[in-house]
């Protein structure tokens, strides 16, 4: 079976040549369109019960998250989320309605207008959101990282993965971690600010830093060196993961669904961002000429990888 990467590569190969309005085609966090004098981002993301979530997520949580993860993709381009279309359904209309209530709640939270969508009966709860975002300048792509840039992340890593472990374990307590998993906080302000200040490349961390930083490096034709001991991991995340017998740094690098933004930028841009961003900004490594390398206390860490959406779960 094809993994998600291979499937997307196959599909991309089948696309016709884009019309001139398409400034950035498939392959980044969003596509970018020039419409009149304006640049707009377009993206979509789908959540499916049994694949992306289980019974521990309420239908409202699922609807909310479907919007939040799309908003995150807009944030990673340096855009402002504006409009969505939401489609989906479940085996009963009550569940569908509750899911769309979550969609609406997120729209209000992120200042996005729900244009419409479609509903259907479905064997399991499924929701797909398409989003349009507006750019005030050229988008920040995955492909702009240059050797010498610093790599920084917004917020914190590993909390969402820890929250997922709490949920899978039927655990109580750790309410903050569970919320980080069910209701991620996309970093729109930080993404916008980073774009304004001159970030070279950005990606939102959906599949885990280890996996997502490789995408930036691949598309930029560069390498990187990430120091796992620098990853911003909150005290409660660290404590919970240790108690569950997990290594906090490994989970923070590979767990996925952080929906933070990874930023590649010259040092002075990172310093300016640190000074002005309300969301904490942490340098976790640097861009190099070649090879993606993870180190910890000076030693190289092998075989770190992230989440594959088509891997068995
Ligand atoms: Mg993304």
Main β-sheet, spatial strand arrangement: 8-10-7-11-9-12-13
What percent of the residues sit in helical stretches (DSSP H or I)?
Answer: 25-40%
Number of helices: 10
Order of helices and strands: HEEEHEHEEEHHHEHEHHEHEEE
CATH topology assignment of the largest domain: Phosphoribosyl-aminoimidazole Synthetase, Chain A, domain 2
Question: Got a strand count?
Answer: 13
Low-confidence regions:
none
Integer average pLDDT: 94
CATH architecture classification of the largest domain = Alpha-Beta Complex
- Tell me the span between the first and last alpha carbons: 14 Å
What class do helices, strands and sheet pairing give?
A: alpha+beta
Using only C-alpha atoms, the radius of gyration works out to 19 Å
Fraction in beta strands: 25-35%
CATH class of the largest domain: Alpha Beta
Task: Please name the fourth-level CATH homologous superfamily of the largest domain.
Answer: PurM-like C-terminal domain
Bound molecules: magnesium ion
Structural summary, described in words:
By secondary structure, the protein is an alpha+beta fold. The chain has 2 domains: 4-135, 2-Layer Sandwich (60s Ribosomal Protein L30, Chain: A); 142-301, Alpha-Beta Complex (Phosphoribosyl-aminoimidazole Synthetase, Chain A, domain 2), CATH 3.90.650.10. It is built from 10 helices and 13 strands. Strands 8-10-7-11-9-12-13 form a 7-stranded mixed β-sheet, with helices on both faces. A 6-stranded mixed β-sheet has the order 1-2-3-6-4-5. A hairpin with a 6-residue loop joins strand 1 (22-24) and strand 2. Helix 2 packs parallel to helix 3 (93-110), helix 4 (159-168) packs across helix 5 and helix 6 crosses helix 10 (267-276). The site of magnesium ion has 5 residues, from loops.
